[in-house]
Amino acid sequence: MRSVVAIVLASSLVACPRAAPPTVVPPAQVTAAEPKAAVVAPRRMQPTDPPPVFVDPQRRAKLEAVFPAIDAYLQSTVVRDGLVGLAAGIVIDGELAWFRGYGLRDPARGLPVERDTVFGIGSITKTFTALAVLRLRDEGLVDLDRPAADYLPALDAIAYPTADSPRITIRHILTHTSGLPRMGDFPEYPITPPDRAEFLATLDGLGLDRPPGERRVYSNLAFQLLGPLIEAVVGEDHRSYSGATILRPLGLTNTAWKPEDVPGDRLAVGHERMPGQPPRARPHWRPGAADAAGGLYSSVEDLARYAAFNLAAWPARDEPESGPVRRATLREAQSLAVLTSFSATSMREGPAQASVSGSGLGFGVQVNCSIDHLVALAGKTLNYRAALFMLPTRGVAVILLSNLSSIASTVLPNDGLKVVEILAGSGGLEKRRHAPSAPLLAAADALAGLVSRWDDEVHARLFSADYLDAYPKPQVAAQLAEWRAQVGECRDPRPVAIEDPRAGRFEFACERATLRVELRVAPWAAGTITSFTILEATGLAPAPTQARAGERFLRLLDRWSEREFAALFAANFTAAPMRAAFAEAAQQFGRCTLGTTKLSQAREAVFGLTCERGAPTLRLKLDGAEPARIVDFHLREAQDGPCR
Questions:
Q1: Cis (ω within 30 of 0) for the bond into 392?
Q2: In this structure, are strands 396-402 and 385-391 parallel, antiparallel, or unpaired?
Q3: What is the pLDDT of residues 387-443, one digit of tens each?
Q4: Rounded CA separation 257/363 (Å)
Q5: Would you tell me how many other CB atoms lie within 10 Å of the CB of residue 474?
Q6: For FRET with 61, which of 353, 382, 517, 598 sits at 20 to 30 Å CA-CA?
Q7: How far, in Å, CA of 520 to CA of 497, rounded?
Q8: pTM of the predicted model over 0.85
């Protein structure tokens, strides 16, 4: 249920050289399985910080524990949608950890769906085409930011909408920002497949929907044109090029560009269903020279290998390259390059829900409150549907393939998201975690000592030059002295949340409280502190003035009094809007009492509240006057912001 979950009433706001022209290299020079090595290796940081790792020893067992629930859900979807056949797979840490086949790949012969059963994968093909182009980029054969017509002159026949429109680049095509329409000026499912010349001839006079680079609009036509572009660069058919440089090096033996090239008796028979009729077999789609956007056929077994290859690019690390496309290139392709949408919804129960989606380079990218990085791919053809979800930070992928096209385009992707949701509910879909580096641990220990006892030499040695310049010594000394008076001496810093090897949150064990501190150290040998924030102290009783202010605030929430308001709040607050806000909060939370307390500054306390409806927090900041008055406050649900 949607609602306004909090009021935030305060006097402040809280925020969240162009490459050389292309050189056409004879095919024999560009079809090797491995890309060319870099001429000069980048200089390395020493010592090297370790990459993040999965730390839960029960992670795999937790994920496997929900496989029966996933099986039950997918069985229900087969019945719900009347699917002819469905192949489902889950990849964990580079292997196909779970597979189920439902229904039949060929009802006429009663043949079941198996892990090597081949389906049309539609637009998932775009990612293979994108990787072929990015490999050419890595080899210096194309520049993503040069006009695509420099490589495929036929593109100059396109009519631009304005005189100042930039020319279409390969990057525009890869991010769906080319302005090209979704489909070209020819049938999507032609009776006679167009050859290269016929396909390119349709560009003459074709207009753009909008100037290139203006915004993302999905275009099959744009990716279809990458097939002839690859051919123009390497001097061979794009299918043979991708086969030699992507498919065969990855061992994708069941993946093919044409149905007759699928080995053995593995091809699922594609079906459609007319209203009120049973499913019927349908002839294969023949896109001809326009197949680079959606012409591939593949199986769960092969897509599991493909997903494993993509997931293995994460995280960045030192080990030698082992695949046909560099790890850094894969990470680039699967990172958000163009934002399509952002949404956030407040919820009465639980944290706000937020999501972001857009394009990488040929890959769809989503972020939501459950998964911080979701690579989402979906495909449809005349007689097949497909969905592939990869979770780079979790090492997991979900694959769904069906040989019935007559379902809505969102059905299979939504089922894939449901499987991801079930996996997330297992508690095993954890992120990799960083370990704190030695410089970060040393800095935390030294900072705890400085909180306990000020030392000019330690201060000068501990902080970076830019920090010392931005925050004068007297200011830092006074801040730490204020905290020392509250919490006493501190020791034994314990890491509680490591953002990366050189940044994270620590808890200091102090005489009278636990002090939580956030700090970051420089990525060079000295490892000096570049920033730090004392977040809060727990286990410390509030000062009498803070406790009194909290009690008076709650009395005012229970019963408004303009006289009490004027005595409690600083002059920058105005009575009329405050009265309305307090009435709204009182209606939402009811009567409240003070609970646990955290000290976030010497004159700022955060109270946990126990209310008739909900458990919000109240942060109060007081001035230094006598009697003290409230100069800033936040009253809100304990779930603080989206994706808590």
A1: no
A2: antiparallel
A3: 999 999 999 999 999 999 999 989 999 999 999 999 999 999 999 999 999 999 999
A4: 20
A5: 8
A6: 353
A7: 12
A8: no
Helices (H), 370-518: 411-425, 438-452, 456-462, 465-470, 473-487
The tens digit of pLDDT for each residue in 244-273 reads: 999 999 999 999 999 999 999 999 999 999
- Other CB atoms within 10 Å distance of the CB of residue 76: 11
Please give the structure tokens belonging to residue 418: 């449901």
DSSP 45-108: PSSPPPPPB---TTHHHHHHHTHHHHHHHHHHHHHHHT-SEEEEEEEETTEEEEEEEEEEEETT
What are residue 169's DSSP bridge partners?
147
Q: Which two structure tokens, joined as six digits, stand for 179?
A: 């302005």
Distance CA 83, CA 77 (A): 8
Residue whose tokens read 């198996």: 114
> Using CA atoms, how far apart are residues 129 and 219, in angstroms rounded to an integer?
14
- pLDDT tens for each residue of 208-252: 999 999 999 999 999 999 999 999 999 999 999 999 999 999 999
Q: Which of 424, 387, 410 is nearest to 69 (CA)?
A: 424
Which phi and psi (to 5°) does residue 207 adopt?
-100, 160
What dihedral do alpha carbons 571, 572, 577, 580 form, nearest 10°? -60
Percent of the chain with pLDDT over 90: 77
Distance of CA 184 to the CA centre of its chain: 31
Q: Is-contact 258 180, C-beta < 8 A?
A: no
